[in-house]
Amino acid sequence: MVEKFYLYWGLAVRSLNEYLDMEDRRSGDTVIAGILTLLLADIQQGSSFNWRCHLDAIYRLIMLRGGFYKVAESRSMEPLLLCFWSVAVMGNTTCPASDLFMTTFQLETLKFLPQQYITTVSPIQLCPVALFIELIKINHLRMRARRPDAASTKTFKMESFEILERINRFSPHRLAQSKSSNQEVWALVGLVYQAAVALYCILSLQSLSILPETPALRVQCATHGRLMQTLLVEALASKSLKRFMIWPLVVLGVEVVHGDASMRVFVAKELSELSQSVGSYVPLTAKRVLGEFWASGKTHWDACFDRPYAFTGQIAVDTSGLMPLYK
């Protein structure tokens, strides 16, 4: 199987290189789809430490075509752009603050993102759009806090509490009501991601001393952690949801460095089982990263991730819109 994987991987790379050498084809939809396919394959196989080079290539191709807004006019590109955004934004959450990628570009498209994708059939890793937007803002705030000309800590602190307040105001119930079916499932998804995004907000911004380490915030994190464990038991039992629970499990894994050993056992066990059930190396990578973090004696978010990681369960991108002959 491994030999066949690398055989077809090599053929795909060769074919893409041929297209990239053709000036009239190098920025076509199929080329972007091909690069995304390689990106997801590399992530799922755990075979590339430099998966961001694929994102950079796609970004350059998008710029060649007139920018994100121009490319997004094509309906066939919608699932490709969703995949691109998902990996880029979620990947920024699990990387050192000193190595964040395209955060300003992502922030600049915020006004456009919800209008384009709020009713899309393909969800962004199942993360509700309102919470996905907050992830982009948190990532950008982390980047700004690392820059030498960053604004005052007071300004950052105010922004961070505003983000946290919006996350806490998010209503999983309203999310579920907006769906025509499976409302209980969507309510569960909303609750999981609300708790996960809140934890990411607090822990990652405390890691940069943007948010203070107060007893009140520690209680809030512990409460989110206990709730997430309960919710994840239910979500991971669902065949349709489990693939989308890798990132929430990673977030919980960072939080449980403050908790008891039983919660760490839960996270490690679920990641191992998830790897087998979804056929991906990604959960095992997450388990290794978290295990090293737990053993390090460190507790801050940025101490967990020595380099950028992409903890996504997506294994393929929808290319049906690129092949009208098969419709």
Layout of helices and strands:
Elements: H1 2-20, H2 29-45, H3 52-64, H4 68-71, H5 78-93, H6 103-108, H7 112-117, H8 129-146, H9 153-169, H10 172-177, H11 183-207, H12 215-236, H13 246-255, H14 261-278, H15 282-296, H16 301-304
Summarize the structure.
This protein is mainly α and 327 residues long. Helices cover 66% and strands 0% of the residues. It has 2 domains: 1-66; 67-302, no CATH class.
Describe this structure in words.
It holds the Pfam family Fungal_trans_2. Keywords: Nucleus. This is Zn2Cys6 transcription factor. It comes from Trichoderma guizhouense. The chain is mainly alpha-helical. It folds into 2 domains: 1-66; 67-302, no CATH class. The protein contains 16 helices and no strands. The longest helix has 25 residues, at 183-207. It is globular. The mean pLDDT is 83.
Helix/strand structural class: mainly alpha
Binned strand content: under 5%
Q: Tell me the domain tally.
A: 2
Distance between the termini: 31 Å
Please report the number of helical segments: 16
What would the principal axes of the Cα set say about the shape? Answer: globular
Query: How is the biggest beta sheet arranged?
Result: none
Task: From the alpha carbons, calculate the radius of gyration and give it in angstroms.
Answer: 20 Å
The count of β-strands is 0
Order of helices and strands: HHHHHHHHHHHHHHHH
Low-pLDDT windows of residues: none
- Determine the mean pLDDT: 83
The portion of residues assigned to helices is 55-70%
Which key terms come to mind for this protein?
single chain, mainly alpha, 16 helices, globular, Fun_TF, Zn2Cys6 transcription factor, nucleus
